[in-house]
Amino acid sequence: MTLLDTADMYGPFTNEELIGRAIKGRRDDVVLATKFGIVRSEDSEFRGVSGKPDYVRSACEGSLKRLGVDTIDLYYQHRVDPGTPIEDTVGAMSELVSQGKARFLGLSEASPETLRRAYEIHPITALQTEYSLWSRDPEDQVFNTCRELGIGFVAYSPLGRGFLTGQIRRFEDLPEGDYRRQSPRFQGENLQRNLNLVARVEELAKEKGCTPAQLALAWVLAQTKAQELSIVPIPGTKRRKYLEQNVVALDVNLTSEELRQLDEVASHGAVAGQRYPEAMMHMINR
After folding, report:
1. Given 10, 55, 76, 131, the catalytic residue
2. Is 10 noted as a catalytic residue in this protein?
3. 231-252: average pLDDT
4. Has this prediction a pTM greater than 0.90?
């Protein structure tokens, strides 16, 4: 595992600093990805989304300094700014490539139309969007666009924000202040319906001799072949033991029958509730 994915808003700012410390002296061992565009103050207050050219340039300088590197391997716009034409944003990003400050460009949660417009300005290497047994929306139109343009797909939250691990049994299992408490999928009747789905995933994992998380990751990895598209999952974790368990998913090979069963259990639309609270839903697929 060599891909490290971060963003200036994580912390905010502190995660980039931590990664910078971690890779010091071994920069060439990793593929470094970070993002800009979700504007937060030092006290983490949300200030909006920006794709303005001047902001692109200043955000990149900040990330380079915090990461302690000269070049970012994959630089993403974290969320599309509806107030700035994507052509202007990607135009500024392409200047970073010309200057050697970024090697490849990506977008996150961009719609097919936006992807096409962006690609006309500069090749887009990757689209990062939520994808898992818990969120299969990209299968509708996004995958077709990525295949057509030769864009790789990076699946964030491949474990359904931790839900597919089987560790969350009730709303109270989420710590106070956890942002998932605001998610419709973790509330009321939605939660119970989704728990029923995870219970079935757990049964299939037990039959396979792996954990539910490993099964869920193996499913995402298998979609590279099923969807004829390069798909890379980026599971996040706070503990080394879970990181080590996640790596084992690379050795979990699913049969066509097992894939069929998982598709049946977690079919498109089977999960109850929206991915984000209503206000945040306006920031995705645009």
Report:
1. 10
2. yes
3. 95
4. yes
